[in-house]
C-alpha cells in the first residue's frame, strides 16, 4: 500500500523534481493543491529550516497525513547573501524570474568570477501525524553567470552556473539536476529518514 505524502507547495516544477526523486519509494506524493488545501501561510521564520517547518505544520493541521515542505533559496556572497530566505519574494512575488535574474546580473555588473560565488540552499521539514518534526538540508555551490542560459529548470536556475559542469542548472537534464541540486540532496536525506520510519 502506498503511503500518502502531502507536499506543501503549488509549484509544478518543484513537484516534478520531488516525484522523480521519491519515485523508487512506496510513497505517493501529492501537492497541497491536489489535496484540496488552499492556505496562505506566513513564512516569518529567519532561517530556511524555520520556514519549512512553519509550512509543513500549517498543512499538517489541515490533513493529518505525512506532510513535507521545503524552503529554498539563493545566497549570493557579494550581495550579503541576498536574496536568501526572501528568494521567492525578492522584488515581489508576482515579478517574473526573468526580471529578478536580470536585476541580480545587473547588481553584479563588473564583479569578477571569483567574487560571484553563490549557493542554492534547501531545507526540508517533515511533520508526521504523531507530531514528530524532522528536517534535512542540502546545498550546492556555484556562481552567478553573466546572462541567462538554458531552458530546463525554473526560478534562478538560468543564472546559477556550476563551474565543475560548465553549465547553469537550467542547462542540466532532469537526472543531472536531481543528482547535484540542493533540493535533490535534501530530498535524498529525507528519503533515508522516511525509510527508517516505515
Describe the structure.
The chain is an alpha+beta fold and 198 residues long. The protein has one domain (3-197): Maf protein (Alpha-Beta Complex), CATH 3.90.950.10. The chain contains 5 helices and 8 strands; from the N terminus they run βαβαββαββββαα. It has helices at residues 12-21, 48-63, 97-107, 174-180, 182-197; strands at 3-7, 27-31, 66-76, 82-83, 117-127, 133-144, 160-162, 167-168. Strands 1, 2, 3, 4, 5, 6, 7 and 8 form an 8-stranded mixed beta sheet that branches. A hairpin with a 4-residue loop joins strand 7 (160-162) and strand 8 (167-168). Helix 4 crosses helix 5 (182-197). The longest helix is centred in the first third of the chain and has 16 residues, at 48-63. The mean pLDDT is 94.
Task: Please give a handful of descriptors for the protein shown.
5 helices, alpha+beta, Maf protein, 8-stranded mixed β-sheet
Amino acid at each position: 500500500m502506498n503511503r500518502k505524502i502531502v507536499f506543501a507547495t503549488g509549484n509544478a516544477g518543484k513537484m516534478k523534481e520531488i516525484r522523480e526523486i521519491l519515485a523508487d519509494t512506496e510513497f505517493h506524493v501529492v501537492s497541497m493543491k491536489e489535496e484540496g488545501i488552499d492556505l496562505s501561510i506566513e513564512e516569518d521564520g529567519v532561517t530556511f529550516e524555520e520556514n519549512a517547518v512553519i509550512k509543513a505544520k500549517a498543512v499538517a493541521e489541515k490533513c493529518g497525513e505525512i506532510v513535507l515542505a521545503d524552503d529554498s533559496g539563493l545566497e549570493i556572497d557579494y550581495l550579503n547573501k541576498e536574496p536568501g530566505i526572501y528568494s521567492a519574494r525578492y522584488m515581489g512575488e508576482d515579478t517574473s524570474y526573468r526580471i529578478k535574474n536580470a536585476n541580480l546580473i545587473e547588481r553584479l555588473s563588473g564583479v569578477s568570477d571569483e567574487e560571484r560565488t553563490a549557493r542554492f540552499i534547501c531545507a526540508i521539514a517533515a511533520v508526521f501525524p504523531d507530531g514528530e518534526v524532522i528536517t534535512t538540508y542540502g546545498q550546492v555551490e556555484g556562481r552567478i553567470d553573466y546572462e541567462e542560459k538554458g531552458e530546463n529548470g525554473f526560478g534562478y536556475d538560468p543564472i546559477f552556473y556550476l563551474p565543475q559542469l560548465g553549465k547553469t542548472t537550467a542547462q542540466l537534464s532532469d537526472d543531472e539536476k536531481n543528482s547535484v541540486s540542493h533540493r535533490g540532496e535534501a530530498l535524498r536525506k529525507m528519503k533515508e529518514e522516511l525509510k527508517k520510519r516505515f
